[in-house]
Amino acid sequence: MTKNNNNLNNQSITPLKATQLQGEDKRQYIRTLFDNIATKYDFIRTIVFLGQTSSWYRQALRDLELQPGMKVLDVGCGTGESTRFLTNSYPDIEVEGLDLSPGMLEVARQLDSVSGYFEGDVCNIERPDATYDLVITAFTFRNFPDKQTSLAEMIRVLRPGGRLLILDHFQPQKILWKQTYTFWMSQVVPQIVKPFIEDSTPYRYLAQSIINQLSMPEFTNLINGFGATVTQANFYGGGASGRLIAVRN
Ligand SMILES: C[S@@+](CC[C@H](N)C(=O)[O-])C[C@H]1O[C@@H](n2cnc3c(N)ncnc32)[C@H](O)[C@@H]1O
User: Fold this and answer.
1) Which residues of 142-164 are buried (b: 16+ CB within 10 A; e: fewer)?
2) Which residue, among 165, 183, 182, has the nearest Cα to 173 in the 3D structure?
3) Ligand 1, atom 20: nearest CA belongs to which residue?
4) Cβ contacts of residue 58 below 8 Å, gap of 6+?
5) pTM for the whole thing?
């Protein structure tokens, strides 16, 4: 399928409908979306989140106390900012990044020749059970084709006692901030990205996926049902972003 045909297919689905897609339909929608924006992803994200995502990575990833020899998987690594952060921050650990989008991986590989990047799907991680000490997924969970299978797979590849870290966008709880943030994401962002991309669908999808995001207690209940126990939950940016850490039982 050509890039243009994929574009048309994604444009024919409303952002709300896209957040509700499951399985292969969601996988195809998401792969097309990220392949199409890969080369501009980092630049546009800096504008959309006013440069805050780098600070959220630092807050979420700097206190992990990873020891030499530990193995880490970054699921939905995209262009690799979190993968590079881990590789550069913790000496002598082994970091791999997995992503569905060849376009995003191409950018990641251009920026980083140390971490190991591979193409794949969170619902079928091609690694043996109990391979990793830490699995992270940053700003990605909302895009997965199946929440339950994704969690089961990320926990399967963790060794017992290993940690799963989910960093993602949330809806702020404080009413004024929630209204401002929702207005920014759903009304302002689709306009300000227009000079940089032909089609603002990915950013209307982004806003809708944040509106549809699980709450922190819903996330905690879901993870606790999958052979792991949530031990930490933190918010950043007044609740616009948050981190959960769970330990595999
Ligand atoms: C919003 S980007 C986040 C990228 C990166 N983690 C970051 O923090 O910049 C979401 C990424 O998740 C990837 N992704 C979505 N669904 C996936 C799946 N089923 N399996 C693997 N990666 C997936 C997308 O291709 C995309 O690169």
Assistant:
1) bbbbbbeebbbbbbbbbeeebbb
2) 182
3) 121
4) 85
5) 0.93
Question: Which residue out of 6, 19, 28, 30 has the highest number of ligand 1 atoms within 8 Å of its CB and is therefore the one to mutate?
Answer: 30
CATH number attached to the domain at 3-248:
3.40.50.150
Buried b (16+ CB within 10 A) or exposed e, 21-44: beeeebbbbbbbbbbbbbeebbeb
C-alpha 99 to ligand 1 mean position (Å): 6
What pLDDT, in 10s, does the model give residues 180-217? Answer: 999 999 999 999 999 999 888 999 999 999 999 999 99
User: 65 — phi, psi (to 5°)?
Assistant: 50, 50
pLDDT of residue 96: 98
Q: Which ligand 1 atom is at minimum distance from the Cα of 122?
A: 20
Amino acid (one-letter) located at 186: S
Q: Rounded distance, CA 219 to CA 197, Å? A: 33
pLDDT at 9: 61
pLDDT in tens, 97-113: 999 999 999 999 999 99
Cα(181) to ligand 1 centroid in Å equals 22
Residues 6 or more apart whose CB falls under 8 angstroms from that of 25 comprise 145
pLDDT, mean of residues 156-176: 96
